[in-house]
Specification:
Number of helices: 10
Structural class: alpha+beta
Number of strands: 10
Order of helices and strands: HHEEEEEEHEHEEHHHHHHE
Bound molecules: adenosine-5'-triphosphate, magnesium ion
Largest sheet: 2 strands, antiparallel
Distance between the termini: 23 Å
Length: about 260
Amino acid sequence: MSNGNLDDHLFPSSDNQIQKQLLSWPQRKNIILDVAKGLAYLHHGVKPGIYHRDIKGTNILLDAEMRARVADFGLAKQSREGQSHLTTRVAGTHGYLAPEYALYGQLTEKSDVYSFGVVVLEIMSGRKALDLSSSGSPRALLITDWAWSLVKAGKVERALDASLLRGGDSPNSNPKGIMERFVLVGILCAHIMVALRPTILDALKMLEGDIEVPRIPDRPVPLGHPSFHADGNNFSISPVLSAPKLQPGDTLSELSSAPYVEINS
Ligand SMILES: Nc1ncnc2c1ncn2[C@@H]1O[C@H](COP(=O)(O)OP(=O)(O)OP(=O)(O)O)[C@@H](O)[C@H]1O
Ligand SMILES: [Mg+2]
């Protein structure tokens, strides 16, 4: 695919070959809608449905027109008729794994919806799914926790990439209300509680404005909540990642001693 992968466009590094330009709002919107439609096909357009299991920027490829395709079916699994979920070896990538899948190996279509939500938040904010660079506290910051905190504080706008807000309120500026709606859908899709996540079909309808985005439901107090610590840390770390300090390259198997876990970082 001539424009490589999404991750390289969101997070350009000096060794990337592609000529980098910040993605525009129409490009970001189309990429998100393309990925949602690709997932809707996998989950609901084929029988039995397919779980991709590794939705993330490097597995989303961009063509000459910057339209997106879901790629890399190396971890994909077929669902089973009549079974609400599969219990499986965990595989995937840190920062994109749904908590119930990472912890219990419980795989449903909502695991892909979670990863999709994380990718939506990366695209809208220009931040990485999991930021391990912080040397202070918190030591690891999940984009889902960061964005959720902003929404709960009534500051959704702050989750938007600064480049999307240039132009202020001029008639030519990007539509802030729609961009904020995309952030809210991302947060809802990446909700900690599996039952509260929409299906990808409903997420697509929300993105396209066909149905309302419900109020973002509250979630259990994460283990990283200040009430568990005395250091006044404002951000919460999801239970999955709150305990040991993560380093790039750590695998969940090293953290949990489970011999059968394969996680990319
Ligand atoms: N058809 C393609 N066109 C352009 N780039 C591609 C194509 N197929 C794969 N790539 C790119 O090649 C690189 C290697 O892909 P690969 O799937 O092996 O690794 P990855 O996506 O970084 O990690 P993972 O193994 O977790 O999927 C990635 O940057 C991917 O985006
Ligand atoms: Mg890949």
